[in-house]
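Box S1 | Example of a co-folding query
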Amino acid sequence: MQGVDPAWLPDVAFRPIGTRRTLIRGSGPLVDTVHGEVAGACERFGGRVSRESGSYDLVLELDGDDGSEGFVYERGDGCTTVTASGARGLLYGFFHVVRLGETAFLDDARRASYRPESALRMLDHWDNVAVHPVMGQVERGYAGGSLFWEDGRARGDLERVRAYGRLLAACGINAVAVNNVNVHATEARLLTDRIGEVADIAGALRPYGIRTHLSVTFAAPVVLGGLASADPLDESVRAWWAEATARVYAAIPDFGGFVVKADSEGQPGPFAYGRSHADGANMLAAALAPHGGTVHWRAFVYNHHQDWRDRSTDRARAAYDHFVPLDGEFADNAVLQVKHGPMDFQAREPVSPMIGAMPGTRLAVELQATQEYTGQQRHVCWLGPMWSEVLRFGIDGESSVGASARGGLVAVANVGDDPFWTGHPLAQANLYTFGRLAWDPNADPHHVLDEWIRLTFGSGPGLAAGLRSILDGSWRTYEKYTASLGVGFMVQPGHHYGPSVDGYEYSPWGTYHFADRDGVGVDRSVASGTGYAGQYAKPWADVYESPLSCPDELLLFFHHVSYGHMLHSSKTVIQHIYDTHFEGVAEVGAARERWASLVDLVDPARHARVAERFEEQLRSAREWRDQVNSYFFRKSGVADERGRTIY
Ligand code: BDP
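Box S1 (continued) | Returned holo structure for beta-D-glucopyranuronic acid
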């Protein structure tokens, strides 16, 4: 597509396939997609593709379609073979060969089977159909307008959506929710009279094995159906949902299901009728069940009108307190979608204690690819290591978050209609990494990063090493110059970009750091605080309970400590704050220099876009450093050991 960055699917990545002879066996729409891919590559590079037998370098074979997503890869006797028993498996096997490049055709005999750890790997788009007066078109979007919606309706030309589906399939994603979880009036109607627009989008994504989901409002029976109530136990309400859902499936037979944000930040929900969230979710699950659909019910429920003077309410506790008592009550096709941390996508949070605490419920874990709190795609912040830590976290010391997410892995999308897809071209690495980690939560994120670099930028050694050094540690760098030691939320209220040390301190949102002249942090211990630490299984409940065993990076999330408190790193809290803020800025400066040195190796438009973002990142990092350091210097009166300038 003209003017659109090919991201990790540049033409050249198809050369190894496009110069060879390929046999494709099997039939169906996804086999046709694979055939189209191979034929396109052959047209560009001179190879050949056929559906008959003969002598071949590559055989892609679908034997049946049992709906599975795995594939077997084999190399021997001068031929590479991918066999799948499900059509999506063939598609993923094909992209596996693309990723291997020439290696796929080197003559060492081997055989391996692959399958995704999780059956649902989904992106949630917080896209509004109509531009919202405060949130714009894409809520928390930093990559231009929506890929799906334009001028208040679905785009007429869906070529870009199709290209998006292709990118997603190439990293293993199989589901997309196409509208914002905050469902405004226009968007509500996508469920009913505007379902045809959703069907068009679903049609553009389907050839790449992607099922479409829709965010719906719990109040739909009232706002769209004219009913007096949306009570989930009311028969007429249930009948309304059953009918509405049947109409959705008439338009989109492979529709994935609903995403619901209920009783959260002003969205309607079952509480208004004295019903539980299991009642609410199960009503929608019942409407979807006959059609094979799933409801993704979000667990992001807390009081956003909190009295900041009341120290007994702790937002971190809320999701667990609401939902864990409901374990076992959710229908089989209801998935409870939990943010990975208990608060809200901060640069550092502990893993949500809900994960692992609801063995009788299918949970999906939600990550945030869109960089709301991690630099808004103006800062380089590759989130692979953070997500990998989360997914590999052993909730009871053993079973991992990744394995507990039986309902799937979800990320809030970071793309828009920007030519580079993600605003900051290097933020594409987050999208790619999410897909690959959702497929295999135990994958080494650094290998994934290398893979993304090689596909996107080629394998020139200088360039690859430079990119790796810029991206690899970028999340830790970001953490250093922003809010320290897990304290979080020292951001500008509303848009959440840039520092505001007390921006949320006396607000109703439940996000406080409690800094005073003696110390900082939130006491969430059982012994003297909010008791949140007690929501964890052992050993974590014990580890987090005491400041002596709590990991440094989460200290202020769990404890209120003095500025002189000694960290495991043998630095005091205050000196750690000073040091990390100076280091963070220095690291951004070094990354910016490194990027500048790659100028001759990177396409000029891409280079210029990233260079421009680095200027802003450096400015912003300095602003963070100066505000945070000055704030704590003035609160504590403790001078920097190293005598650097603090204002
Ligand atoms: C917060 C965002 C807000 C979202 C909310 C959510 O600031 O825009 O609506 O999460 O997840 O992080 O529903």
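The pocket of beta-D-glucopyranuronic acid is lined by residues 139-140, 181-182, 261, 265, 300, 344-345, 372 (CB under 6 Å). The chain has a mean pLDDT of 97.
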